[in-house]
Amino acid sequence: MEESISQPGIFCIRCGRAYPTGVHPFQCPNCGGLFDFRGGLHFDPDQVDPSQPGIWRYRHTFGLPAELEPVSLGEGSTPLVWAKVLGRRVAFKCEYLNPSGSFKDRGSALISAWLRGQGVREAVEDSSGNAGASLAAYAARAGIMVRIYVPESASGPKRKQIEAYGAELVPILGSRSDVSEAVRVAAEAGKAYASHAYLPFNLPGYATAAYEIAEQLDGMPGSVIVPAGQGGLLLGLARGFEALRIANKIDTGPVIFGVQARVCAPLVDLFSSGNAGADREQPTLAEGVRVRNPLRAEAVLAAVKASQGWMVATDETDILPARDALAGLGFYVEPTSAIVWAALKQNIDKLPDPIVLILTGSGLKYG
Questions:
Q1: CA distances from 289 to 3, 128, 191, 284 (A)
Q2: Which residues, including other chains, have CB under 8 Å from residue 235's CB and lie 6 or more apart?
Q3: How high is the pLDDT of residue 278?
Q4: Residue ranges per domain, the chain?
Q5: In what order do the strands lie in the sheet with 355-359?
Q6: From the DSSP assignment, how many helices (H) and strands (E) are in the chain?
Q7: Long-range contacts of 170-175 (CB under 8 A, 24+ apart)
Q8: 251 CB-contact burial (10 Å; exposed 0-12 / middle 13-18 / buried 19+)
Q9: Taking a C-beta distance cutoff of 8 angstroms, is the pair 258, 309 a contact?
Q10: Which of 77, 116, 117 is nearest to 94 (CA)?
Q11: Checking DSSP bridges between strand 310-314 and strand 168-172, what pairing results, if any?
Q12: Given phi > 0 = left and psi -120 to 50 = alpha, else beta, which region is 87?
């Protein structure tokens, strides 16, 4: 592949090659490494533009070409709702109120805009459900046809949602890893791979949730609890809080807790012992975090450790009671979102105030 003028600030983390324009590889064609933004995110409160739609008011932080036309469905600006629980005041960031029902919309808006700017009109993606539904929505908005590969076991409402947006649904029998392998075959055959795991463009989108939280609190949170499969949301939040810390010249950001289901918890294993543990991609009610080999594990764990945080695991038997407890507070979320409640109960004495839980996906998607 011939390299041309590079996309500003995006390089292979392994060999340092700049991301090429005119083509759209999902990984480095030179060494197979991941592409990522170099040098962190830059946040300038004076450049926040409220005239822009959705999260695009923060577009100066995105590292994308200035001429890129936004794709938006009104994502972002989700509420931060307080409740007195377990003897503490806790804030709940309601990401399940994004247009497609999950936090993924913050990333899909950027990925879809980038794809359209590259002239892509057809793309493929793999997902346990939410990322596929989100990309299908934003691709429809951008005029891009997408084919979404999902596990055969994916939630029925998510599958219907993907098809409702006009995307082609491709169910794959087997594990989540089998789904990833199927879409890689399509990508290696030449299809544009709009991957929320491989591509870095969604990460600055996720960081916008950090900017909103800081605005809503009028300051930094003390601790943040977030579900982690690939860990993209956690990584984006960490980078957003770091950009805010630098911009506001303060000493520390929040302590970050990443949460996984114990039956599939490679990030927890890596955090606690330095290895991924047993090959355990067992079925879990928290299907959105069922990821055996998180691609950006090193960066995710570095972000958690830099925050003085932890990776924690939730037992399967705690997930539905956690969902019901959140519903009892008025938050109707899917089981993947509910694992943050179980983590809160486990670690309530370790968490500095103010505490923020990220509720990632709507309960309407589960069933």
A1: 35, 9, 26, 9
A2: 203, 206, 296, 299, 300, 303
A3: 55
A4: 6-37, 80-103+201-365, 104-193
A5: 80-85, 88-94, 355-359, 223-227, 255-261, 310-314
A6: 10, 13
A7: 175/151, 175/281, 175/292
A8: exposed
A9: yes
A10: 77
A11: unpaired
A12: left
pLDDT at 285: 94
> Which helix (H) or strand (E) segment is 132 a member of?
helix 130-142
Q: What angle do CA 134, 140, 143 make, to 5 degrees?
A: 140
- Write the CATH number of the domain with boundaries 80-103+201-365: 3.40.50.1100
Q: Roughly what angle, to the nearest 10 degrees, separates helices 297-306 and 232-248?
A: 40
Closest CA to 220 of 190, 200, 240: 240
Six token digits for residue 310: 């932890």
> What stretches of the chain adopt beta strand conformation (E)?
6-12, 18-20, 35-37, 80-85, 88-94, 122-126, 145-151, 168-172, 192-193, 223-227, 255-261, 310-314, 355-359
User: Is residue 367 classed exposed, middle or buried when 0-12, 13-18 and 19+ CB atoms within 10 A define those classes?
Assistant: exposed
The CATH number of domain 104-193, selected from 3.30.2010.10, 3.40.50.1100, 3.20.20.70, 3.40.50.300: 3.40.50.1100
Q: Identify residue 324 by its one-letter amino acid code.
A: D
Residue count (the chain): 367
Q: Determine the residue type at 56.
A: W
Q: Is the peptide bond before 354 cis (omega within 30 degrees of 0)?
A: yes
Query: Would the pTM of this model clear 0.90, i.e. be above it?
Result: yes
Residues of the chain with pLDDT under 50: 1-6
To which residue do tokens 């949460």 refer?
A: 259
Query: What pLDDT sits at residue 2?
Result: 35
Chain centroid to CA 236: 7
CB 123 within 8 A of CB 144: yes
pLDDT of residue 275: 73
